[in-house]
Design goal:
576 residues, mainly beta, 5-stranded antiparallel sheet, 37 strands, 11% helix, elongated
C-alpha cells in the first residue's frame, strides 16, 4: 500500500511539473538597448491603466521617472566621449513578478556621423464617415465613426477621391441612398514619429479617438464634393414649421416657437400684449419651398378664467357579495352605474370612478381604498366566501301507507344558486349496506315513490314477504327486506342529501304483513306495537335520523292509539 501511495504521489508531482512548464510565459515584455551614444527603453504588453512606472538613471541623475499604460518607449542620448553608468527600474502594478531592473556602464566612443532625416516624416490620411446630423456641415463634432480610405506621403490634401477608394477597410455598399447629404470626409496631415503605425488608426471615433500625437492640420468636407453623382442633385427646399399660441386665463399669454435647424424665430408683441408677430429668418444656404410661411400673427382675448364649481361629494356603493354553496356559485356583483359613480372590474379589483362634477368623500367605506387619480378600488374582505359544499334542502320526507301500500313521500329543493336541468332531475337511492342499492331516476323534486318490494296492485306485495303458489305469504330475507328496519335514502340532483327513513309502522290503515300467513318454524311474523309508548318510540327514532314525517304519516301515528287494539284482535283471529 505504501508503495502504491508513493507511486501516485510521484506521478502527481511529475504531472504538476509538466503543467507548470506548459503554462504560457507572461506577456509583459521589457527591453533595453544601449550603445555609447543612446539608451533605449522599450516596454510593451503590460496590464492596462496608469499604474505601471519606469525610472531611468544616468550617472546618478534621474532622467526618466514616469507612469505608463500598456507600453512605453523612450530613447536617451548619452555623452559618447565618456563612460556612462545607467540603471532601468520597472514597477508593474499587477504583480511583483513582472517587475524589471537592469544596469550597466558604457565605454567612450567616437560619435557616429549624423543620420539622414527620413524622407517621409509627414503623411496625409483620407477618412470617410456618416454625419451625426444630416443637414449640418461636415465637422469633427458632427462626425460618426470614421474609416481610413488611403494614406500618402506629404502634407497635401486630396481634391478628388483617392485612387484607393473605397479602400481596404470600407465597403461602398454601406453607403445609404442619401449619401450626398449624410456623409462627410476628414483629411489629417500627421507627423510620423518613431513607433507610429497606421494600423492603430484604421478607425477614429469622435470624441475619444484614437487621436494623432502629431496632428499638423486637418480638413472636413461633405463627401458629396468628391462624388460626381452628387453634383447634379437639386438642393432640398424646406417648409418651415409654424409656431403655436398659448392663451391662458390665469397666466401670461405666450407663443411656442418651433425648433428648426433651417431658421431662427423671433417674436414681437404690441404694447398691451394682445397681439404678437413671429418671424422666421432662414439660415444661410437654406432654400424655402414656395408654400413655406415666414411670418405668423396671433391675437389674444384676455378673457377671465371661468371658476369651476366645487365637486359634489359622493360615496361609492359596495358591491353585492353572493356567498353561495360551492365555489362556482360565488359571485361579486358590481353596483349599478349612476350619474354620480361608474363601476368597472379590473385586474386590481373593482374600480369606482366619480363622474364629472363629483368627488369621493375622504372617509370611504372600509373596503375601498382611495387612489391618487381620484378613483377608489374595492378589495374583497378576507373570508367573504365560505365555500361550503352544496347540499339539497330537505322538506317533508317520510314513509306513509295508502290502502295498505307503503310509499316514500318526499320534498326537496335545490340550494340557492343551483339550477336543475329538466323537470325531473332527482335520483332517489335506497342504500343497501350489504348488497345492491335500489335506484330510481328521473323524478321530480316533490312527490311519492312506491316502497321497494311493495305492490299497489293485486297480488299485493310487501318488502320482506313472499307469496306462495297457494296465495299465502311467508316472511323472507329477500324482496328488499333490508328496507324495513330503518334504511338510508339518498336524494341527489347535483348536490345531494341523505337520511334514514323507517318503514311505516303497522296500523289499521297500513298492515306490515299480509293476512294470509303460512306458519313455519323458520318464519317469523312481524309484531306491531301493542301500545302507544312503542309507537311513540318509533316516532322518536324517525325524528333522530333526520326524517320529517309528512301529513299522511302524522295522521297514521295519531290513529295508532285508537286502532291498534282492533288490529291485534283481527290478527289473532286470523292466526286461530
Amino acid at each position: 500500500m505504501k508503495r502504491m501511495l508513493a507511486s501516485v504521489a510521484t506521478a502527481a508531482l511529475a504531472l504538476g511539473g509538466l503543467v507548470a512548464t506548459a503554462m504560457p510565459a507572461s506577456a509583459h515584455t521589457p527591453k533595453v538597448s544601449v550603445d555609447c551614444q543612446n539608451l533605449t527603453v522599450d516596454l510593451w504588453a503590460y496590464a492596462g491603466g496608469d499604474g505601471n512606472s519606469v525610472t531611468v538613471t544616468v550617472n546618478g541623475e534621474v532622467k526618466i521617472d514616469e507612469s505608463f499604460g500598456t507600453s512605453f518607449r523612450r530613447t536617451l542620448e548619452l555623452d559618447p566621449t565618456q563612460s556612462n553608468e545607467w540603471t532601468v527600474d520597472v514597477d508593474a502594478w499587477d504583480n511583483d513578478v513582472y517587475d524589471f531592473d537592469e544596469a550597466g556602464t558604457t565605454e567612450p566612443c567616437v560619435a557616429p556621423s549624423p543620420q539622414p532625416e527620413p524622407e517621409n516624416e509627414i503623411q496625409t490620411a483620407f477618412y470617410v464617415y456618416p454625419k451625426l446630423r444630416d443637414h449640418e456641415p461636415a465637422a469633427w463634432h458632427n462626425s460618426g465613426k470614421q474609416t481610413r480610405i488611403a494614406v500618402r506621403d506629404g502634407a497635401e490634401f486630396w481634391e478628388t477621391l483617392p485612387e484607393e477608394y473605397p479602400g481596404e477597410y470600407f465597403d461602398v455598399a454601406d453607403l445609404p441612398a442619401d449619401v450626398c447629404e449624410s456623409w462627410g470626409v476628414q483629411q489629417d496631415i500627421v507627423g510620423i514619429h518613431q513607433g507610429f503605425d497606421w494600423a492603430d488608426y484604421v478607425h477614429i471615433t469622435y470624441p475619444h479617438g484614437p487621436l494623432f500625437q502629431d496632428l499638423i492640420a486637418h480638413r472636413h468636407t461633405d463627401l458629396s464634393e468628391f462624388l460626381p453623382e452628387c453634383g447634379d442633385q437639386p438642393k432640398e427646399k424646406v417648409t418651415l414649421p409654424a409656431p403655436s399660441s398659448v392663451e391662458q386665463c390665469d397666466a401670461e399669454d405666450s407663443v411656442e416657437l418651433p425648433e428648426s435647424e433651417h431658421a431662427t424665430y423671433t417674436e414681437k408683441w404690441n404694447d398691451d400684449r394682445t397681439e404678437v408677430t413671429v418671424t422666421a429668418t432662414p439660415h444661410e444656404g437654406v432654400e424655402l419651398a414656395e408654400d413655406s410661411e415666414t411670418s405668423w400673427t396671433f391675437t389674444f382675448t384676455h378673457e377671465p378664467c371661468e371658476v369651476e364649481p366645487e365637486p359634489v361629494v359622493v360615496t361609492p356603493d359596495l358591491p353585492s357579495v353572493e356567498d353561495l354553496c360551492g365555489t362556482e356559485n360565488d359571485d361579486v356583483r358590481l353596483p349599478q352605474n349612476t350619474d354620480e359613480v361608474i363601476y368597472e372590474t379590473t385586474a386590481d379589483g373593482i374600480v369606482a370612478t366619480p363622474a364629472e362634477g363629483f368627488a369621493f368623500d375622504e372617509k370611504l367605506p372600509a373596503e375601498y381604498t382611495a387612489q391618487d387619480d381620484g378613483t377608489a378600488i374595492y378589495t374583497l374582505p378576507e373570508g367573504s366566501f365560505t365555500d361550503e359544499p352544496c347540499e339539497l334542502v330537505p322538506g317533508d320526507i317520510g314513509a306513509v301507507c295508502d290502502a295498505e301500500t307503503p310509499y316514500l313521500v318526499y320534498e326537496v329543493s335545490l340550494p340557492e344558486g343551483s339550477e336543475a336541468t329538466g323537470e325531473n332531475p332527482l335520483t332517489v337511492t335506497f342504500l343497501n349496506p350489504d348488497g345492491d342499492d335500489h335506484v330510481t331516476t328521473d323524478l321530480p323534486l316533490e312527490g311519492r315513490l312506491l316502497w321497494p318490494g311493495a305492490s299497489a296492485e293485486e297480488p299485493l306485495q310487501w318488502p320482506g314477504w313472499e307469496q306462495l303458489e297457494d296465495g299465502s305469504y311467508v316472511e323472507t330475507d329477500d324482496n328488499y327486506a333490508w328496507t324495513r328496519d330503518g334504511v338510508q335514502v339518498q336524494f341527489e340532483v347535483n348536490p345531494d342529501y341523505s337520511m334514514v327513513v323507517n318503514y311505516p309502522p303497522a296500523s289499521e290503515e297500513c298492515a306490515d304483513a299480509p293476512s294470509d300467513l303460512r306458519e313455519a318454524p323458520a318464519q317469523t311474523v312481524v309484531d306491531v306495537p301493542v301500545d302507544a309508548e312503542e309507537v311513540a318510540a318509533q316516532e322518536d327514532e324517525l325524528a333522530v335520523t333526520g326524517a320529517t314525517i309528512g301529513v299522511a304519516a302524522a295522521v297514521a301515528l295519531l290513529l295508532v292509539g285508537g286502532g291498534v287494539a282492533l288490529f291485534v284482535v283481527r290478527r289473532r283471529l286470523q292466526q286461530s
